[in-house]
TrEMBL record, chains A, B, C, D:
<dbReference type="GO" id="GO:0000166">
    <property type="term" value="F:nucleotide binding"/>
</dbReference>
<dbReference type="InterPro" id="IPR036291">
    <property type="entry name" value="NAD(P)-bd_dom_sf"/>
</dbReference>
<protein>
    <submittedName>
        <fullName>Gfo/Idh/MocA family oxidoreductase</fullName>
    </submittedName>
</protein>
<feature type="domain" description="Gfo/Idh/MocA-like oxidoreductase N-terminal">
    <location>
        <begin position="5"/>
        <end position="136"/>
    </location>
</feature>
<dbReference type="Pfam" id="PF01408">
    <property type="entry name" value="GFO_IDH_MocA"/>
</dbReference>
<dbReference type="InterPro" id="IPR000683">
    <property type="entry name" value="Gfo/Idh/MocA-like_OxRdtase_N"/>
</dbReference>
<dbReference type="InterPro" id="IPR051317">
    <property type="entry name" value="Gfo/Idh/MocA_oxidoreduct"/>
</dbReference>
<dbReference type="Pfam" id="PF22725">
    <property type="entry name" value="GFO_IDH_MocA_C3"/>
</dbReference>
<feature type="domain" description="GFO/IDH/MocA-like oxidoreductase">
    <location>
        <begin position="145"/>
        <end position="277"/>
    </location>
</feature>
<dbReference type="InterPro" id="IPR055170">
    <property type="entry name" value="GFO_IDH_MocA-like_dom"/>
</dbReference>
Amino acid sequence: MKRKLRFGMIGGGRGAFIGSVHRIAAIMDGQAELVAGAFSSDPQRSADSGSDFYLDPLRVYPSYKDMAAAEANRPKDERLDFVVIVTPNHQHFGPAKLFLESGFNVVCDKPVTFDLKQARTLQKVVERTGKVFALTHNYTGNVMVKQARDLVKRRKLGDIRKVLVEYPQGWLSSAIEASGQKQADWRTDPKRSGAAGCMGDLGSHAENLARYVTGLEITELCADLTAFVPGRTLDDDGNVLLRFDNGAKGVLHASQISAGDENALSLRVYGSKASLEWHQEHPNELIVKYPDKPREVWRRGNDYVTVPGQFTRVPFGHPEGYLEAFANIYQEVFRAVRAEVSGRRVPRNPDFPTITDGVAGMVFIDAVVKSASRGSRWIKVPQS
Amino acid sequence: MKRKLRFGMIGGGRGAFIGSVHRIAAIMDGQAELVAGAFSSDPQRSADSGSDFYLDPLRVYPSYKDMAAAEANRPKDERLDFVVIVTPNHQHFGPAKLFLESGFNVVCDKPVTFDLKQARTLQKVVERTGKVFALTHNYTGNVMVKQARDLVKRRKLGDIRKVLVEYPQGWLSSAIEASGQKQADWRTDPKRSGAAGCMGDLGSHAENLARYVTGLEITELCADLTAFVPGRTLDDDGNVLLRFDNGAKGVLHASQISAGDENALSLRVYGSKASLEWHQEHPNELIVKYPDKPREVWRRGNDYVTVPGQFTRVPFGHPEGYLEAFANIYQEVFRAVRAEVSGRRVPRNPDFPTITDGVAGMVFIDAVVKSASRGSRWIKVPQS
Amino acid sequence: MKRKLRFGMIGGGRGAFIGSVHRIAAIMDGQAELVAGAFSSDPQRSADSGSDFYLDPLRVYPSYKDMAAAEANRPKDERLDFVVIVTPNHQHFGPAKLFLESGFNVVCDKPVTFDLKQARTLQKVVERTGKVFALTHNYTGNVMVKQARDLVKRRKLGDIRKVLVEYPQGWLSSAIEASGQKQADWRTDPKRSGAAGCMGDLGSHAENLARYVTGLEITELCADLTAFVPGRTLDDDGNVLLRFDNGAKGVLHASQISAGDENALSLRVYGSKASLEWHQEHPNELIVKYPDKPREVWRRGNDYVTVPGQFTRVPFGHPEGYLEAFANIYQEVFRAVRAEVSGRRVPRNPDFPTITDGVAGMVFIDAVVKSASRGSRWIKVPQS
Amino acid sequence: MKRKLRFGMIGGGRGAFIGSVHRIAAIMDGQAELVAGAFSSDPQRSADSGSDFYLDPLRVYPSYKDMAAAEANRPKDERLDFVVIVTPNHQHFGPAKLFLESGFNVVCDKPVTFDLKQARTLQKVVERTGKVFALTHNYTGNVMVKQARDLVKRRKLGDIRKVLVEYPQGWLSSAIEASGQKQADWRTDPKRSGAAGCMGDLGSHAENLARYVTGLEITELCADLTAFVPGRTLDDDGNVLLRFDNGAKGVLHASQISAGDENALSLRVYGSKASLEWHQEHPNELIVKYPDKPREVWRRGNDYVTVPGQFTRVPFGHPEGYLEAFANIYQEVFRAVRAEVSGRRVPRNPDFPTITDGVAGMVFIDAVVKSASRGSRWIKVPQS
């Protein structure tokens, strides 16, 4: 298929955060181009944003419904190969369902939906339509996260015993939502964010990262959630004890009130033979620790790294970061989309997060909120 | 008082670990000298150890009881100013009580006793005798830990919201106790270690560190303890959710099976205005983080450090470590002992851990074990 | 100007390294698109590469001369706004001169030319044509490098006294050029690389970084260059003493045989009041050190960072890397190119490296080689 | 020999810095005791200091000459086993020569003498008297420095190609000597410090560290020394190019005006097969880098560390620091002194710095100063 993929975008207009991340990640490898969008629920803002991106005004829409209707009728050589949804959480389900059912592949920001019920419904839509659906739990796009998973898979750590995953941020240490900061505004609003605040935004990333690397499922958890900042109703901090299906134990904690912390997602996995740790703020390194030999620092780009070279853009020592990891998710999505569009078989276990991961994330959020609301009791986590 | 202090030692003979740490810490500042001891329950080993230390054989004893009896009768100018107890946990209470009641000041390794009941009894003995009793929770001897406490006290962090304290070690990742490793042997034995393994050895340090720096008390906890290594009866790993008396939340986890981790005690304290973190393996630094200005690295030995200069032996950039922190505990003990011996008033709130801290540690261990044994339920922690 | 900029590329076809870096950096912000190229001196490889990039075959050329001739005749609405030159060093001058004289703006990889004479000639061409000419000394695109420069400019460091800049790599520790590794092959060949190997490739980056941040010029230097790997004729390692025009002293060292080092460019600047350091492998941080207060870690993306926000794509804690810094160079180039293309005034002191920096780099390389070839004597560096 | 060693001290009274370091290092292992001293050229201060150390006033002297005379006449069972000299540089030679010739073993602070001539004379005295003479280039006492040397010796790095050693401090960034700071006062005074300031104090440590680890000798150097702080006559900063006897090249730089740096001695050694780096401020780690496998972090106290266990006092993860390294020098000295005192053969190549190292250090200082004073010309360094 000798052409770039064409995509449209729902949300992500002027003033948005994650929209520009998706755009950069999607286009940086020269494999895709943005050609359409409903960038805002405010039609003027949508139009202005389309102009910022040098789009044909005819393909910039005042609403996602208009866009779905119009784009579905485009001729084949103009047709969108996929649609990217980057709206607040409560506006994922509607466009995702509509575009899937209109015959489009979909990339959606996380968490997948507003609540678990929507997620399960959407899962059926994905299965029924057979379209590609990808969820941007972007941190698993990091090369050294993939390397970590590979080491676990090849049993280099032995049996996994303990998993520590944490995600402290500090940007909501004070009530900045009161001053109208847009990102803070919707993320602290139960009507738009869902039943969880910090746990929905950050906890679900942490859960996804732990599951991706270890391949283990959480079977029970005990969560203590708190809204520390006065006036806030959703949790801005949470600590969770974890038990996994192989008998491993763990701790997951996440926070938006860890003043001075930025985006300090990290994962530590301890096995019977060795251990590893990865820190998102230093993503090019993976630390591997042994009981009986020097600890090792594995660094992206070296020949000893067993992750496919396609995920690496620049040589060792030339730091890659957040955007490249995000772009790695897209790169895998492109392979699936090109297959789908060409009528070839879509990969069965693609290396990007799918609706299954989306549902697992919502199950986790649901369980955490339930545990907390019942006096932080232990909760069994339903297995899919 | 123009002389060195004289001390004797219970335990700490050939093959011991913590005994030599106490000796170095006690003598390095030229303020005290070892003159007597019952270094082992094996009389020959005790004698050989005394010879290693160049002691007068007449003051090297086959048992602590013999030692107490004989030393109590020494003339004043030979009399021991204090006794150091460095035996396994189940042998703290006996000698501590005996020496206190025989009129000696006592330094005791942690945890203070085998169980909480003994601790409460010993507390009464300490109060009744009026002697100095110090517990070597040595990590609070670190200058930058003291600096952390000072920042909290001066309200630089605002209100404390979250406390993360962890203590991962990996040396018991396999069943080395089976091969007769002496340290592993008694620490994994419920008859000598007490009701907790990892939580007694490491958890109590973590609890003490958190309490020292924050000044907060744990009011409730929920603990998930595990013995991962087959054949082990005491926990070698534990994860604990914490609630504090001011409404702060926290996590404490400790481990002896975190393969490849060494002695990775660390503390993070998050406040409404700023946060701090300290890592035992890099003890000369304290990281202070703010929501709105560059994070700071406070380094021992600088003029801006507000901790009294007496706790610093070498200038900035000349790393101090574990032994110097331990020696700082002794330095404070010496002030109290010199006062006691001279008939002056003993400091009321000395900057070393006391029997109060010892009881608090046993309360913590007791609560953790109770929580775990009741299905990891939340437990209210009794306040003294 | 409501459209993306159009660019073409000389070199950078299949198997190249820096070509893909330029492509990603140029397109990631959605401001430019690749539409033409002479990607290789091998016509088939050029054609295949054009196909990889989904280009119109009519705009993929067998040579840069063909390309210049054909593209100069394109109608205005198809015309290239700039050309990117990413060939080996000995092939910079030819296409740069030709495209400038054919009326195109030019972005050229570093070092600017094969030798100093070419550089001075090219400088005249740039001045005469009035076109935009940018040199991708990409490291100055890093936000925290710009922050460093700003701190120096605002006199936060006082008078600069000492500059340490180093660039150790290890990838040429053995004679991999012998096995046909393409990058190694031309970089170790005096006919393609120029009079210097390591010093041309890495030393010139180091020189540029130091000059950018400090604003100082090197007036004298003493260089000791070595070819350590047997059979190599160009230096693969060099150590240089520096003297600056304000009386500051410094050291610059660079290496391709520092086994195990990756791309460890770093800069330290010491002033009378404070100092700073920046490490390319951890580019999101800038360390600022004071004689009398805690050292600070400035981190990209925070409000206290005074660098214009345009250079930052993702929030604090979301690491940016090599490609984003490179893209920052392009972003500034785009502003100049848009001005030039629109007939507006081109910025006088743009924040990207210009032909002046290119000449300075060649003067440095020339002086280093002269010093080394004369027994590592001190050499006065001509000031422009 | 079943007793502690007895030692006396020249210098190191109240207000001194390095004196207390020597005292702690000498006594911490319970192998030696301070029994005599001439602690200051001010008799009252000497007496007061003796009292601080609980010494017998009869063995506290107003001058080192008095002390030598009196102590030489002590009976055998009171006789000093060694004397420690911790005076400013210009007062090393006199007492060292006198005590050696009076039959005492001597430990002397570095640099060994005021100038090279004195050093050569002292070397003859040492040889003639056959006494133990040790120089406290303390950094080679670090376990991980010894490990580095061992790796080099066992050819794990292959052929050494490049050596980078640096020692930046910042404490003399301003003219604190003007305000009477005692340490600054004599170190910036050519009459007491010698021909070099920074290079004598720090450069000689750096040279010693490089030589100890690599086993290489410097054959040529080119030095650029500067006194940056107005009014200062001795260098407070210096940059030196190095050439070694095996063809390796290197850079040594040291500074007292690197504002905000503390005691940042570090060493990097690059070989044809691997490389290593060690940082004094994180002394428990040694980083080993390879071209083709993950870099390793070797950590003190592990079983894979090949350095004799005697140099390690506490287990891995319990940081050791400056004082322990210093004490390791003493520990080796004690072995030699016990042999000498017992009439046994003194070790031929002891693992502590000897007069040979002292002379090598003075040769280095002499060469550096000569190079600098001759316009920073290359100088051949005489080989002993």
